[in-house]
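Q: Hand in one record:
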Amino acid sequence: MKTLAIIIGNNKYHESAELENAVNDAKSIQQVFERLGYDVICKLDCTVDDYAGLLNEFESKIKDYDASIFYYAGHGFELDGENYLPAVDCQIPPANKYVAEKYSIRLSELLDIYRSYGNKVNIVIIDACRRTFDRGGNIALAPMFAPKGTLLAFSTSPNEGASDKGFDGNSIYTGALLRYLGREHLSVEVLFKKVRKTVYALSEGRITTWEHTSLINDFFFFNTGQLVHSVDIPYSDLVVKDIDYAEATDFGTLIADVKSYNWYVQNPSIQALLKIPTNQLDSNQQFILGRNLLQAAEGSAAEAYNFMERIGTNIVKYSHDGENHVLNGILFEIYFNAYGEFRKSNTKKHFIEEILALRKNPSFNSSFGFISNLLLSTNSELVYIPKSEDEHIDIDVVASEDISQDFLGHDESVQIISQITFNGVNITEHIKNYHISRENEESLKRALSSFFTAPKSLIQINSPVKLEKIAFIKSITTDDDFF
């Protein structure tokens, strides 16, 4: 689901009303949303001039998205039944409602935009002060009701106070929210219920979060598998999210050398790692070893390359009691990045035939069960899930014969592909990116194998014509247009 996120964090109000954590809250939310793959517009310490441009940009872009999220951290107050989200150049508290209107976003303005897009999923998250000076005072935001397709989430209930503090560097509300945003298969409604329970418990009953929803679409999930947080992975976060992996041991030093991208350092370190007796490596060390072997092999480090070329033989020594943690690491590295996030279409393709061939060996059932469960948790329909039993990937190709001209101006017969589908999903535009125009069915199979991260032998193409020289429907007019 294509999602646009607008994020605002305001700290720098005048001295007596300055906040400590609103900007940190906004930055933390921004980081998570970007890792979830959302298109993010983040503005910090907004002035009233910033607000005008931000709302205009939001209104002009929302039509191009399936869902939108508006997140605000800062002061907030109610005057005459209207909710205001003040810019940092607004007087706190405002002298009157006219000052408030001049220097604030009115929540009703935002909801008016949403009323035109009731067919989308629109979420508003307000971590705003319910009292004037510290996100915990006397001026409350008024109750609001969500237009169709919208969920409103507030850090407190009407007429309750909130807190600018709670977690280290975050408010109690955003701190709780961050704990749940990465949970796969956690619908937005369930997520905010969990946030409410956490905030209530941590505030010792002083704060109760509040939501109102008029969502009519299917449940919205912040994380549909982009981040691997809640899946039961039997390894430490330090090796699952290995972006900052470091271990103050000889093993850790060798792994750091393998990460150096310097062949002269990598190769002797890989040799040393592969000589360590398996009973001297714990499961986390074996897992991170597997990940780095694949990484180094992709960079053509000879020792890692040789290991992967003969992986069927080399991996056996790491099997123990039905588990192979090195193979688990290799498989995980194919599909998940250094943040533990699902790579989607950017899976690692090197040595995929050699690695996936191991799925046929019963000795490695546990490893392929491990990666299959993770891939199932992503809900991705376009990545092959390795199985010991062969299951063809049926691809339907709509194509017809036509005549085009080659680079010398001679007529030639081509097969114009207008559509490529898998299980009813149109993947034509994806496959065009593999630049297989003027090539044959074998080239198309290789492209599909790469796209699905699957053995080429499993690709079954169903086409009404024999594919000997491929073109695409948009590329019939000129040679320059061929993909």
User: Anything to note?
Assistant: Residues 283-298 form the longest helix (16 residues).
